[in-house]
Amino acid sequence: MERQITNKEQEILKNVIKEELDFITYVDVNTGICHVIVTNPATEVMPPDGYDYETVNRRSIPVFVHPEDREDCEQKLTLSYVREELSKKPYMTVVYRLLCKDCYRYKELHLSYHEADQNTVVIVRRDITDSLLESQRQKEALQNALCEARRSNEEKNELLERISHEIRIPMNSILGLSHLASEHAGDQRLVQENLAKLDASARFLLLLFDDILNLSQLESGKTVWSGEAAWLDDFFEELCQEVAGEAKKKDVGFSVEKRGDFRVSCVFDQKKLYRAIFNILDNAVKFTQPEGCVTFVAEKLRESETEVLLRLEIRDNGKGMDDKFLPHMFEPFAQEDEGSTTLNGGSGLGLAISKCIIEGMGGQLDAYSKKGQGTTLIASFALKRERMTASVKKEEVYEETEYDFSGKRALLAEDNEINIEITRNLLGYKKMMLEVARNGKECVELYLRNPPDYYDIVLMDIRMPVMDGLKAAEKIRRSGREDSLKIPIVAMTANVFEADVKKSQEVGMDAYLTKPLEVGEMYRILDRLLRGHLSKNVEK
């Protein structure tokens, strides 16, 4: 039988064996005599050439095959069984564990007739231990991924339930107060009281929505980080003044300790860091009883030519937290006591946002607490240092409470009829004329149809049919008209992500107002743009 393959074929087989197989052997089904065609030198347990197939199996299987696999091997590897199986299908396989040194490895036997020769069975054995282990690892990885997906889905459902709960509370207030106001329209005092409460509920709802979006952006890694230079002592002074005001309202003591020289200029996202630290301090004030105390320690650990390493410690002597709850305190809507987060004010997302911001800056936020002894939060992070010799010039404060837009004409691009009516009334109160386009394409056409300087300002929604506000603003800026680069264009949109603000700046918008509109802020921005006091690309 060895003469049935050429020398070239033999060499090919040897190369295959060397990489993948243990051996290849031929069995004469009539005589039971086997001939080993080629073997892998690395194989430890090898059959001898010219052996009797049945005899060797009877002797080797009890010795080398794993006890749990012996019965199966003894049955399937008899010549009678092999002939029967190969009469029904072109090949058969047998997998078992073989003793090699001091361990068992998985082997696979592949049995088939030699081409058209029904008297010769070709047996090929290969080691499948590594492939099985890899398959097992992949299976376990898949199972872990499925478990993680289920866990993530459960967490998502739980979060949605919490969000639904927190939203329904202010919504119930809004609907109830609206009903009461309409039912007692003749009672001016009651109507005013209900309207004030309704406004507070609506503002809380807006805060909740904003925080949900901010947290989602931070967790997804899609948030945009800005960097502006600021003096650290000015930054912390402004922050502490605001916290002190909140503490005073609640009759809570607030002390500040600075360790080190904070007359250092650094470049960082002031808005985000301010939000992160304020959330922590404000949370400490909220959960400290009247006549209690909150302590803020700001320490400059290290300063080099390129960066400043800070450690902020916020301590309170409030009720503290249980050891079981402490690991969950940074989770959205986490609360040790049952009930709505609205009971303590805030959205219930403040600490989760703070942790995301600080970790997004490459820092760390840790918490320590004992029941009845208060809570301590420690934030550590580094800020990029900027060399500055002069003090940072703060933005000029421009105050104007009475606005008169007489003689001014605005072009509003808006597709929502209610928003159109609200804007028309708000601007009408200040005597501004208003023309309306229902989409971006119509806005561009109206602008180009009228002579230069016909419109004094353009108010642009972003999401509109036919053509969005970004494309419309870009077309106006590139129209080549003599007023195309100087006419103020203001985004008035429900898009609140920083990436949206950046896109509006890139197409040449001058300011960015988010819906729902803060009426006083809208008047202030419009007034300053119309007067030419406002620099380009202002975000509200």
What does this structure look like?
- With 540 residues, this protein is an alpha/beta fold.
- The chain folds into four domains: 2-127, PAS domain (Beta-Lactamase, 2-Layer Sandwich); 144-220, Signal transduction histidine kinase, dimerisation/phosphotransfer (DHp) domain (Helix Hairpins); 228-385, Histidine kinase-like ATPase, C-terminal domain (Heat Shock Protein 90); 409-539, Rossmann fold (3-Layer(aba) Sandwich), CATH 3.40.50.2300.
- It has helices at residues 7-19, 53-64, 67-76, 79-88, 129-183, 188-220, 232-249, 270-286, 350-360, 417-429, 440-449, 469-477, 498-506, 519-531, and strands at residues 21-28, 34-39, 91-100, 103-114, 117-127, 228-231, 253-259, 265-268, 293-303, 307-316, 364-370, 374-385, 409-413, 433-437, 457-460, 489-493, 511-514, 538-539.
- The strands form three sheets. Strands 6, 7, 8, 9, 10, 11 and 12 form a seven-stranded mixed β-sheet that branches. It has a six-stranded parallel β-sheet with strand order 14-13-15-16-17-18, with helices on both faces.
- β3 and β4 (103-114) form a beta hairpin.
- α6 (188-220) runs parallel beside α9 (350-360) and α7 runs parallel beside α8 (270-286).
- Residues 388-400 and 534-540 have low confidence and may be disordered.
